[in-house]
Amino acid sequence: MTDRDSTPPSSEREPDGEKKKERVIHTRVPAVLEQELKRLAENIRVPVSNLVRAILEDAVAVADRAGRGVEEGLHKAASNLSTQREAILAKKEKVVTQKALEGVIGFQKLTLAGEAVCAKCLTALHPGDDANLGISSDANAPRVVVCDACVPKRRA
Ligand SMILES: [Zn+2]
Question: What are the extents of the domains in the chain?
Answer without folding.
Answer: 3-98, 101-150
